[in-house]
Every structure is written in C-alpha cells, then in structure tokens.
Design a protein that fits this description.
Length: 372
Amino acid sequence: MTMNVDFILVGQGLAGTLLASELFRQNKTVLVFDDPAAPKASLVAAGIINPVVFRRMTKSWLVDDAFPQMEKTYHQLEDLLEEELYYPGRMLKFLSEEGAVFWKKKAFANQIETYIDAETNLNFRNSNITNHYSFGCVNKSGRLDLQKLISASSEFLTQQNSLRKVKFDFEELSIKADLVSYEDITAEKIIFCEGPSADRNPYFQNLKFKHSKGEIIELKILELNMNEIISDEVFVMPAGNDRYKVGATYTWDALNWETTDSAREELLAKFKKITQLIPEMISQKAGIRPTMHDRKPVIGVHPECPRIGIFNGLGSKGVLLGPYFARQLADYLVGISDFIHPEADIKRYFKSSPSSDQGAKKGILRSGFEKL
Ligand SMILES: Cc1cc2nc3c(=O)[nH]c(=O)nc-3n(C[C@H](O)[C@H](O)[C@H](O)COP(=O)(O)OP(=O)(O)OC[C@H]3O[C@@H](n4cnc5c(N)ncnc54)[C@H](O)[C@@H]3O)c2cc1C
C-alpha cells in the first residue's frame, strides 16, 4: 500500500529535527529517514549558544532575529517533548589587558550591550580558576542539550509513525513532475538534512562544502563549581553533576570521526591554563561540522528541480541559527512566504546558467536527475 506524505526528510540531526517540528506545526505530514549506523554531528556537539563574535566584538550574524526565534522554538520543543532541553546562562570570556579595552570600546560602538555586560572585571571570584587580567560576561548565552533533543524527538517521531531508522538509498528515489516517490512512499517534496554526508549527495555536487573536524572531551572536575561557561583558548561548559565539556578542536584535513591523542592533549593543555584542579577523563568524541565555504547555512529548493530541497550548513552557530532558518524554510515550503535569506539561499551556488555550472559539467547533476 502506498503511503502519501507532504514531505520526506532525510536525516534527523539538529536540522532534520527542527524542520520536522516546524512542518508539524504547520499541520504537514512528514516522514523522516535516519540512518542509525551513520554518525551525527549533533551527538558530538556541545550545544553552546554564543551571540557574540569575540574576535571582532560584533553581534553574531542575524542574532537579533535568530535569538528570539531560538528561545521560542526550544521552549516549544520542551513543552512538546516534555524534556528540559534549553539552559540559558552566562558565558565568561577571559580577557588580556588589551582585550578588556577592546571589549568596552566595542560593546557600545557595535551595540552589543543587549547580549553582554559592557563592564569587565565584575564580581566573579572562583579560587580554583587561574588569575586572568580580566573577563567579560555574555549575559545571553547558554546551551542546548542536543543529545536529549535528538533522542526525545526520535521517540516522538516514532510514536507518530513518522520515522524510519534506515539508510536512505538514492537509487530508489524517483522524481516526477508532480511528486517524488521512494519505495512505498509518495511525497510533494524531499528535503535533505544529511549534515556532513551531504557532500556525497548526487543532487548537490556543485555546492561548496568546507566541513571541519572537531574533538571534544568530557571531564569530571570536583570542586570547580562553575555554573557559567568559560571561554578562553578552549571553552569549559558545565554539563551537570561536576561534569564539564571542554572543546573544541578545529581541523580541515583527515575529515573522519576518529578521536586522536593529539586533540586530547591539546584540549587538556589549554584546559590546564584555566585551572590547576586535576580532572577525571570521562569521554572523548570527534565529529564533523557540516559547513559551507562561507560558513553560512544552505537552505531552499534546488533551482533546477524544486521537488528537492536542502537544510544544511549548521556547523557554525547551528544551535542559534537553526530554529530561525527552519522556520524560514518551512514557511517557504508550505507557501506562506517566498523569502529565503539571500546569504543562506541555495541559489548562491547557481549563479551561472544551469548548463555551465560545475555539477552539470561533471555530469553529476545530470546523473542525479536521470529519473526526473
Ligand atoms: C565537536 C563539535 C562541537 C560543536 N559544538 C557546537 C556548539 O557548541 N554550538 C553549536 O551551535 N554547534 C556546534 N557544533 C555544530 C553542530 O554539530 C551542528 O550545528 C549540528 O549538530 C548539525 O546538525 P545536522 O542535522 O546538520 O547534522 P547531523 O547531526 O550530522 O545529522 C545528520 C543526520 O543525517 C543522517 N543521514 C545522513 N545521510 C543519510 C542517509 N543517506 N540516510 C539516512 N540518514 C542519513 C545521519 O545519520 C544524521 O543523523 C559542533 C560540532 C562539532 C563536531
């Protein structure tokens, strides 16, 4: 018997989870495919929310729109899934003498006071933290428990008969003028939310991915007693019960999911500059951040085949930006709005005429569309 849904989604990491919830909210039917054997960036990520770009001391891209949407979405998901997921909190940025001057100067010049305390050297004392010249405080920071979001959403989708925990096979997909079909399912559209595996998707070979590998460790540190996230050469993020996540490394070669001794040593060496307390190692994880060449998300429908869409590129500030772009894409897909932010629009990869684009030249797109 054929099953008909409005949308097939491929991938149930942060991107697929957020898009599915937005489409449900708009009373659309959804079937999500998720490969249980494939690794997920969302199960590695710390889930930190930072509305500021420290290097330039500016607001993070689109933060004034993205932050309220983020809070709304995660609260809605907490209600729906009956789980605590979103932990608003503060982040302390350690500053050098010049850093403190820069912080104060830019706080006003760049209008970031909504998110940070313009003053440095506030009333923060923790005898276990190594002395620093000064520190600045981001008041609107925090974290999302991504692991809990993914597992609770997976249960919810399973109860709704909206999740198939199997690998999606491109060979079985057929794209027609008026629908897409896959095995026993027909749908209006299919949206790929595959995270870092998207660079192997035959339909998106001309997108410019620039993924990075990241490693993170989890430590038990008795007596540290920090509620704030620390940002120095590494972040130290409280995760409850004297556990802290410390990360993350960035590398662009050897893009695999294997943990390395060198990353662990790098993280521990940077951690030791923050406190002399001796930690107990709990775990180490490695993952790949799904990132585009310009570090912006990529959303929208394929300019040459509007029955296929994509929601990806959340590797940079994904927890903060994901809800904003999930809402935008869902509104676009259901026809409420025709706006997609031009800097995130998939169309930016299709500036040249279809016949001259890189993918078509390589014949990759053509083979992807054989069943069109
Ligand atoms: C070390 C590290 C630290 C990070 N820290 C932060 C942070 O502090 N804050 C932040 O905002 N972001 C952080 N990120 C980025 C964050 O991971 C991403 O924003 C986000 O999790 C990406 O979600 P996604 O859904 O795009 O990809 P993923 O979580 O990888 O999900 C993709 C899903 O697609 C599925 N899939 C792929 N192909 C198929 C197929 N053919 N069939 C079926 N299923 C398929 C996979 O199984 C997977 O479940 C971090 C990332 C890393 C690696």
